[in-house]
Amino acid sequence: MSEDSESNVRLLVERVQRLEEENEKLRLELWRLKRKPSRVVGYMLLLLGALSLILSTSFSSLTFAFIGLGLTFWGALLLYIRPVRYVKQILLDSTVISTLTAIDRVLTELKYEGKAVYLPPRYLREVRGGTVFIPFEGANVVPPVEEVSEERVFLRNPNGICLTPPGLGLVNMYEEELGVVFARVDLNYLVNNLPRLFVEGLEAAENLEFDVENGVVRVKLAGSVYVSLCREAVNLSKVCRSIGCPLCSSIACALARASGKPVVIEKCVFSEDGRTIEACYRILKE
Amino acid sequence: MAFPMSFWDIGLWISVITIVLLITLELTTPYSGQVNLAIERRRLRQVALILTIIFMLTVAIRIYEILTKA
After folding, report:
1. Nearest CB to A62; choose among B5, B31, B40
2. What is the pLDDT of residues A47-74, one digit of tens each?
3. What angle separates helix A246-259 from helix A168-178, to the nearest 10 degrees?
4. CB distance B5–A66 less than 8 Å?
5. pLDDT below 50 — which residues of chain A?
6. Which distant-in-sequence residues (6+ apart) come within 8 Å of A55 by Cβ?
7. B53 and chain A: CB distance < 8 Å anywhere?
8. Residue A50: enclosing H or E segment and its boundaries?
9. What residues of chain A lie within 8 A of the CB of B41, using their CB?
10. pLDDT of B69 higher than 80
11. Which residue from B1, B5, B35 is facing A203, i.e. has the nearest CB?
12. Which of B16, B39, B50, B55 to mutate against chain A (most A CBs within 10 Å)?
């Protein structure tokens, strides 16, 4: 009886090992198939094109010449327009979401319930820096410049916490791409140039609309590459309702820099089809 | 052993390629919803514009030839 059970166990172990090996092979196969074969195709087209051009010269054939030119051209073009390096969106989202989760957990644990306020550059030592102040409670609480300029994380008067916004890197990149410092331009500049940058420059969205009215800025972002990240960030209540996801945060930073006044993210909602993000910002009066 | 294409054959080929590239460029614009294409659109635009200029040059040469013959 015990011999039988031992042989059964051995058989099962062998079977599990076989299945694991098969699983590993299938995983490698899946990765191989997921990879874009554009490089191989490019070189193949170039090779076939060159061959066809040689044949056209040997046989004086116009047809071969056209085929050869076409194949060579498309092969070279395919190799030329390939991106130098691209990152899959899922990888990007997975990298960012853990940082946002950490911020959310810290704020929840410390019981900070206030609405985050994005501070303009005059509160900071560096123009390209950024600080978001989260009061312990209440909304639209702006700390005095002297308190913030000491660059402490926890403030006592008013009670709150100063953090580096998740969209700071993005807003600095916008400035680099546009070749301006947002602190030296006005809101109109942002309204006119950010949509072009998002759609044409960074190809980060299909459309971006700004609507400025009485200190309230409504931003409508359609077909953004950050949609899946924003959808995940919705579950992080402290991040989504207060600080905002990296994209909303970057726009808040840009508004704070351009207006020179503190900015609050009032709300951030998804459209029914989940493709459009609508964010509402309020520029606070001091 | 001579290359069988004349200058005008190559001009015709360039014109077709230019049209195809310009249409591709328009269809892949982010405004038409193509934000997930893993290609360097700037380079594609560069190539399309260079070919357009070459095509316009061949047209200019053609016109010049017609005018000088007349």
Report:
1. B5
2. 999 999 999 988 888 889 999 999 999 9
3. 60
4. yes
5. none
6. A61, A64, A68
7. no
8. helix A38-59
9. 81, 203
10. yes
11. B35
12. B39
What is the pLDDT at residue A200?
Answer: 78
**Strand spans (E) along A143-241:** 154-155, 160-163, 207-213, 216-222
**pLDDT value of residue B17:** 93
Residue A171 is predicted with a pLDDT of 93
CA distance A111 to B62: 77
The structure tokens listed for A281 are 């910002």
Q: Closest to B4 (Cβ–Cβ): which among A61, A73, A205? A: A61
**Residue A95 C-alpha, separation from nearest chain B C-alpha, in angstroms:** 19
Per-residue model confidence (pLDDT) at position B52: 94
> Where are the extended beta strands (E) located within chain A?
117-119, 131-135, 154-155, 160-163, 207-213, 216-222, 263-270, 276-283
- pLDDT tens profile B15-51: 999 999 999 888 888 777 666 677 788 888 999 999 9
Tokens 């709150």, located at residue: A160
**Chain B positions in Cβ-Cβ contact with residue A56 (cut-off 8 Å):** 3-5
Q: What is the pTM of this model?
A: 0.69
SS3 content of chain B, % helix, strand, coil (to 5): 75, 0, 25
**Residue numbers in A near B10 (CB within 8 A):** 69
pLDDT at A118: 92
Residue among A36, A58, A205 whose CB faces B1 most closely: A58
The pLDDT of residue A34: 61
